[in-house]
Structures are given as structure tokens and as C-alpha cells.
Write a structure and sequence with these properties.
alpha/beta; Protocatechuate 4,5-dioxygenase, Chain B; 6-stranded mixed sheet; disordered N terminus
């Protein structure tokens, strides 16, 4: 079994699964998000500076895996009922069409169907964490969509396709929420969070893959994820590390609106 230090020694960029909070609340300084805000601002200090970022956001799904290929992605304010200033946020990070083409070739090489989207902008699953992590917006960002099927095994395969990016200084970020339900109880969120932590931090590779494919059997799984689009970016992250370094490090855990959420890094 590789250790964290051994993983770092091979010169691969980390992979991170992070919570992006509720709508634009983290950018507004909303008090319930204070711990998450501090974490996202500090997260870059735990990693080398990336040459580019590949973002898998819970808020972009398509029939076929899509890769953003525009040079100047616009903003997508995919939330409602917030103050007017939250619709003026800008994150002018450039896209990278050349990197997008390379990513598409990797995905196709894994036997998955893939297409380009030259018009796709930054949704709040992308721009909210990045505005806190890399506020200067100088690092190119390419986004990769989820498939609407939300099939766990297919998204692990997508992550495997993206794995070579790590050796090229590209940071892969899965942006979602390890808990995403208004109705679930604090205890249910804690039970699921404990299962997720145990699986990712201590599990052997095949065990992790099996557990994530059958995640719905986990304690309180469907209570915490009635629909799993906020969890599936984690499957992509796992796929990206599963053949290289498979020990996750839990780098954040806190209650948000009374529900436990966590973040993980593989490095």
C-alpha cells in the first residue's frame, strides 16, 4: 500500500473533492458557512500551484460527457432569490481549448463518448470555490460535465481517463457536497459522513471502488442524497487516483446548516 509521502514523491498533482456550500452564500460571508469559507481560502496552501484546473461541478450534467472548450467562459448565476450583487460576481479565469482537446482525447481513449461545449460558463459549483481558492483568476479552468445517468461506475471510469492530467500539473477538483438534503437529520448526515470517511481513508482500492459503486447501500445514503449529483463528482476524483495513490486525507469536516459535510484530498 502506498503512503501519502510515497504518493507525493512521484510528483503527481493532488485531487480534491470539496463542498461548495449553498448557492453564493460562501461569497456573501454567510455565518453558517464561516468554517467552509476558511477552509476553501486555505486549501491552496496544502497543494502545489496548478498549471491548470479541471473542475467537475455537480451543477453541470449532460447526455454525453462534455468538456468546456471556450477561451473566455461566461458566468452562470444558477441560483434564485439572492441579493442583486450576487448576480454581478465575475471570475475571469481563462479557458484552455488546447487542454480541452487533450482531455476529450483521454476520455475517448477510455471508451467513453465525449463532446465539446464552447459556450459553457462557470456555474456556482465552479466559481464559488474558485473565487475563494484562487481569487486572482489567473489559472486556466476547463470544466468536465457529469452524465445525466449519474452512473457511479461510468464516472469512476471518467476519473480514470483524467488521471494522466495529474502528471502534467493539472489540479482535478470535484465540487459537490458530501451531504445534500434539507430533510435529512444531523444524525443521518453523521452516519453517512462516517461511512464515507471510513471508505475513503482506510479502504483498499477494490473495496473503495465497490463501496462507491454501491454507495446507496451505505447508512442513510438516500436520506443524505435523494439525488446523487452532488456526490458523483467524488466518484470522478476517486477514479483519477485509484490506479496511483488511493489513500484519501480528510482535510475538512464541519456542520453546515446542522448537517455534516467533509472534504478529501488525495496527494
Amino acid at each position: 500500500m502506498a503512503t501519502l509521502s510515497q504518493c507525493a514523491a512521484v510528483g503527481l498533482m493532488p485531487v480534491a473533492y470539496v463542498p461548495h456550500g449553498g448557492g453564493p452564500f460562501p461569497l456573501m460571508g454567510e455565518p453558517n458557512h464561516a468554517e467552509l469559507i476558511r477552509f476553501l481560502k486555505a486549501l491552496p496552501s496544502l497543494m502545489p500551484k496548478p498549471k491548470a484546473i479541471v473542475m467537475i461541478s455537480a451543477h453541470w450534467e449532460s447526455n454525453v460527457i462534455s468538456v468546456s472548450s471556450g477561451l473566455t467562459p461566461p458566468m452562470i448565476y444558477d441560483y434564485w432569490g439572492f441579493p442583486a450583487e450576487t448576480y454581478d460576481y465575475q471570475y475571469p479565469a481563462p479557458g484552455d481549448p488546447k487542454l480541452a482537446k487533450y482531455i476529450a482525447n483521454l476520455i475517448i481513449g477510455e471508451g467513453l463518448e465525449c463532446t465539446f461545449d464552447s459556450h459553457r460558463g462557470f456555474d456556482h459549483g465552479t466559481f464559488v470555490p474558485l473565487m475563494l481558492m484562487y481569487p486572482k483568476a489567473t489559472i486556466p479552468v476547463v470544466q468536465v460535465s457529469l452524465k445525466q445517468s449519474l452512473d457511479p461506475a461510468e464516472h469512476i471510469a471518467l476519473g480514470k481517463a483524467l488521471a494522466p492530467l495529474r502528471a502534467k500539473g493539472v489540479l482535478i477538483i470535484g465540487s459537490g457536497m458530501s451531504h445534500h438534503s434539507i430533510k435529512a437529520s444531523t444524525k443521518e448526515s453523521e452516519d453517512f459522513d462516517n461511512w464515507l470517511t471510513q471508505t475513503l481513508v482506510k479502504g483498499a482500492p477494490q473495496d473503495v471502488t465497490d463501496q462507491l459503486i454501491y454507495w446507496a447501500k451505505a447508512p442513510a445514503a438516500k436520506a443524505c442524497h435523494p439525488r446523487e449529483e452532488h456526490l458523483i463528482p467524488l466518484h470522478v476524483c476517486w477514479g483519477a487516483v485509484s490506479n496511483q495513490c488511493y489513500m484519501a486525507e480528510k482535510v475538512f469536516s464541519a456542520q453546515l446548516m446542522g448537517k455534516w459535510i467533509s472534504a478529501f484530498i488525495w496527494r
